[in-house]
Amino acid sequence: MASSQVRTRTDDATARRSSGGPSALAVRARKVSKYFGEVVALDGVDLDVREGQVHGLVGPNGAGKTTLLGLLLGLAKADGGELRILGSPVREQPDGVAGFVDGPGLYPALTARQNLDALARLRGDGSDAIGDALEQVGLAGVADDRVRGFSLGMRQRLGLAAALLTRPRLLVLDEPANGLDPAGTRHVHRVLTRLAAHGTAVVLSSHRMDDLAALCSDVTILATGRVVFSGPLTELVADTDELDYRLRTSDPVEARRIATDTPGLDVLPDADALVVRAAVPALDDLVARLVGAGLGVRELAPVVAPLEAAFLALTGDGR
Fold this sequence. Notes:
By secondary structure, the chain is of the alpha/beta class. The protein has helices at residues 11-17, 65-72, 112-123, 130-136, 152-164, 182-197, 209-215, 233-238, 252-261, 280-292, 306-314, and strands at 25-36, 39-50, 54-58, 80-85, 88-89, 97-100, 170-174, 201-205, 218-223, 226-232, 243-249, 265-268, 274-278, 297-302. It has a six-stranded mixed β-sheet with strand order 6-7-8-3-9-10, sandwiched between helices. Helix 4 (130-136) packs across helix 5. The protein is globular and about 70 Å long. The relative contact order is 0.15.
């Protein structure tokens, strides 16, 4: 896959995928640019995010992810292009949007409950939803503990609880799984999946490919401020031509001989296991040959996950 290849799905494709048409777009960006002095942070970015969709935003450090999230939250204004949030042009802090970039802002001396209560009062909202928000993110048991003693993951979950208080139609999150343990990750995944099921659009950035694979239906990859891919996650993974696979069998010597004789497949040097590089058809052929020879296949797994391999190829960091 060429690293310079750009794949985007714009108006026509979005209309085909979304029965609600253009009105079902929570985010519509066209040729959006943002500059910081002579630095081009975003260079003609197109982005479509549908209602009820979890959309992943990924890219190397400095690719423009945080800048784009800030535009979606109304924390900065684009220098060029068109950006519509929930159907309206963005001229100021958009209504119905919540989230955080660079971590949530919290008061360390206050408890989790007091932080949310202060935020609700600041916005003029009631505090009825605070208990439910804390329960959703798995912090009900520490609601009355001071935030200064919270871990990074707990602070991330409290930031998500704060966003939930507004019942957002668009939720924008910067690295929401940062610092989370497995239990915290499960809580956050459940929350985001449930929100999307009820129509909320979620845009999240992450360096964790497992999060993107588990949560996102669509993904946008940025590199040096430009979109190098935007579309369904399944399509991105399908575009990965060849992957490296680790293979363990009941007879390593015979398996290596069979792999060497399999057309369209390369055997790579590895001291601990048999590693082959192949596209899916050649891999299927290898498995059939191994089983036909009476070998037991004990492990067959990609060395690098398909999503990560596609990301590395598109951003120029692949092998």
